[in-house]
Structure formats: C-alpha cells, structure tokens
Specification:
Length: 163
C-alpha cells in the first residue's frame, strides 16, 4: 500500500493532491515571495518566547517589536509601534483581496493597539506577541479554529500588505 500511495500515477496519490491542492497553493504563496518567506520564517522562530511591553527581542517581544524585527530580518524597515505601522506601512487590503502570509493584521478601535503577522492565510492564522498569555503564540481569526481569538476578531482594523 505504501508504494501505491507514493506513486504519482496511483489513484490514492492523485486523490490526495486534488484534495490537498489548497495546501500546495498556500505553500506557493509563501515561497513565491522571498521577503514574505523571510518574515514568516523569522516570526515563527520566535514562537514561545516571552512577551514584554516594549520588547524588541531577541528573547522578549511585544507585538509591534516582533513585526518590526521580522521585516527588518527580511531587509524592510517599518516603524516600531503598532499604530505607526498601521498609519505608515504598506497598503490596506480590500475585502476582495486574498490575504497572504507576511501580511500584517491590525486590531483596535480607532487606532491600532495590536498587530500580528499572517502565517497561514486560509484560516487567517497569525503569530503575535500576546501580553495576556505572556508569550509569542499562534492565533486565528477563524471561528472554526481551536486557536480562535474571538476578542481580537471583533476588533480587526484591517490587513496591510508591506511587500
């Protein structure tokens, strides 16, 4: 069975590829743009590190410090605070545009008080330095996800594309 499943000519393999095409498409989204890839790689490598208000790394982060450092690692300079990033960085995505890994998601009422980096677009999954739990972690804006952040989903200001 293992040999049959791994063969590109097998019905099992073809069925998996057809059903898993969204996963392949997602991988292409990440890898087609080297800057976004570096942003996502850097951000995910910080997973589990401590949260600290004003943290700029490498062992402690706040949300905007993580976003700023991730883009800096990719050779792109963005402002330091979440609100400055919201006001001065990238372009706001329309509701019709596809969210891509590396895009920034901002939260707040009228100004941005929190930012995350999209790492998995199909479920609006993002990495954030979260003060409530005291660490860098992965969260989602999709209510079907086990890591859904209902508190943040109600406060999305918008998504911005830097590169």
């Amino acid at each position: 069975m293992w040999g049959e499943t791994g063969s590109e000519e097998s019905p099992t393999f073809k069925n998996w590829v057809e059903r898993g095409s969204w996963l392949l498409d997602h991988a292409k989204e990440v890898f087609e743009n080297k800057t976004r890839l570096k942003v996502v790689e850097f951000a995910t490598q910080q997973w589990g590190k401590s949260y600290s208000l004003g943290g700029k790394g490498p062992e402690e982060w706040d949300c905007s410090g993580l976003a700023s450092a991730a883009y800096e690692c990719a050779g792109v300079s963005i402002p330091r605070t979440a609100n400055e990033q919201w006001e001065q960085t990238g372009r706001l995505l329309s509701d019709e545009e596809k969210i891509l890994p590396g895009d920034l998601v901002f939260f707040g009422e009228r100004t941005a008080g929190h930012v995350g980096i999209i790492i998995w677009s199909p479920y609006k999954t993002f990495i954030e330095a979260n003060g409530q739990v005291g660490q860098v972690r992965v969260s989602s804006l999709d209510s079907r996800s086990k890591i859904y952040r209902q508190d943040l989903a109600k406060r999305v200001l918008g998504f911005k594309r830097v590169v």
